[in-house]
Design the sequence.
């Protein structure tokens, strides 16, 4: 491992050792208002497959009453990001590929960034809350980001204010902060893009087994010839299938995978009541040094942090249906929960801090991007999170209520395990 890939120790927020963190980001930490991102494009950004090249990206920040340009580049590539969020929703998310690595937020330099729209999320905070929960675990790496105001324009247009976005790191190994041999994405939302299928795993809310679509996210196919990548893909598929077979025939889980990462990934998703791993969607696993790891976490804006969820929804998802049968996994689950519970309990303060930060921007965002009705909602009411018609502060209070309630429920269920 490189220094940037060490598993971080769990230190309660606010108790870091003096001088432990040195902020190196080009975007200042404490600004008078949200930083502004300006994207000028030479032709329409209307695809998530094809990059729009030679975009001009400028980032400004206002500190102590003075606005400064903190980043500017003329050679940025921009394209759409996501599946249903790009195809269906009016507020579009974007992926950025910089010509040179940049350290926007003090987490290290990388070329790959995303602008998440969070259109369906009344609070705009669901993804960031889940990411913060993950940062407090032993998961090797979790994307970091900041809230910004986005402005866009074509070559001959005027600037168009696009609202409040989350500018953050993309899950991408090269130039990022974790290393692996292979990075796998499990996602049933766009079957045309998958490279192969898993041999095992429960999905579609446990109604089907095996055959989950898997896409190889690393190594990056753009860096290889078609013949070279075909060979890499075969090796990656074989390696994953070998781990699946070992787990299914009853090998000790710790001989196949990293127990703590699978437990912590599970706990973060259960904390959010995230149903997407049941399908699955936006689930990442990676192989390194002969072991399978869970993570990074991603995508928490649909149906999460909702009060009244009275079940452990992911016990049968992916490979957890097999892991739950092993005393080694259940023991690790209880051990990790005891350690992580206090970290999760303090997340209410984190919600308040972020809500105060984005409140003014959220008000404008709500005016131009009302998140109701959702065209993909299963019910007739058009709701997916249940807070779409609430005020911002009502939605924030409901989120905090859901978090506290969920911790209490999980504590009872996990402590009762044998």
Sequence:
């Amino acid at each position: 491992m490189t220094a940037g890939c060490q598993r971080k120790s769990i230190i309660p927020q606010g108790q870091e050792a003096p001088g432990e963190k040195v902020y190196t980001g080009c975007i200042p930490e404490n600004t008078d208002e949200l930083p502004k991102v300006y994207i000028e494009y030479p032709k329409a950004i209307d695809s998530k497959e094809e990059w729009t090249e030679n975009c001009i990206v400028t980032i400004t920040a206002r500190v102590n009453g003075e606005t400064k340009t903190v980043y500017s580049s003329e050679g940025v590539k921009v394209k759409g990001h996501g599946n249903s969020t790009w195809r269906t929703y009016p507020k579009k998310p974007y992926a950025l590929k910089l010509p040179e690595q940049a350290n926007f937020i003090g987490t290290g330099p990388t070329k790959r960034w995303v602008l998440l729209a969070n259109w369906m999320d009344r609070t705009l905070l669901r993804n960031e809350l889940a990411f913060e929960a993950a940062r407090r675990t032993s998961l090797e790496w979790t994307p970091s980001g900041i809230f910004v105001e986005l402005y866009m324009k074509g070559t001959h247009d005027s600037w168009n204010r696009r609202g409040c976005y989350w500018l953050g790191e993309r899950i991408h190994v090269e130039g990022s902060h974790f290393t692996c041999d292979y990075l796998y994405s499990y996602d049933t939302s766009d079957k045309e893009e998958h490279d192969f299928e898993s041999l095992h795993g429960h999905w579609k809310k446990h109604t089907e087994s095996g055959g989950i679509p898997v896409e190889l996210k690393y190594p990056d196919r753009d860096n290889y010839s078609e013949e070279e990548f075909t060979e890499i893909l075969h090796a990656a598929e074989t390696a994953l299938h070998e781990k699946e077979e070992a787990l299914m025939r009853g090998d000790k889980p710790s001989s196949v995978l990293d127990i703590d990462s699978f437990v912590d990934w599970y706990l973060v998703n259960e904390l959010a009541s995230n149903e997407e791993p049941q399908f699955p969607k936006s689930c990442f696993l990676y192989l390194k040094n002969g072991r399978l790891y869970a993570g990074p976490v991603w995508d928490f804006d649909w149906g999460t942090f909702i009060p009244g969820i009275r079940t452990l929804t992911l016990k049968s998802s992916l490979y957890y249906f097999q892991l739950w049968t092993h005393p080694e996994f259940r023991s690790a689950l209880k051990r990790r929960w005891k350690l992580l519970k206090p970290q999760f309990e303090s997340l209410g303060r984190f919600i308040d801090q972020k809500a105060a930060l984005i409140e003014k921007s959220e008000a404008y965002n709500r005016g131009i991007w009302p998140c109701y009705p959702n065209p993909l909602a299963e019910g007739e009411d058009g709701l997916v999170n249940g807070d779409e018609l609430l005020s911002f502060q009502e939605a924030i209070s409901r989120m905090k209520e859901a978090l506290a309630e969920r911790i209490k429920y999980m504590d009872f269920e996990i402590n009762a395990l044998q």
Remarks:
- The mean pLDDT is 92.
- The CA atoms of residues 225 and 231 lie 10 Å apart.
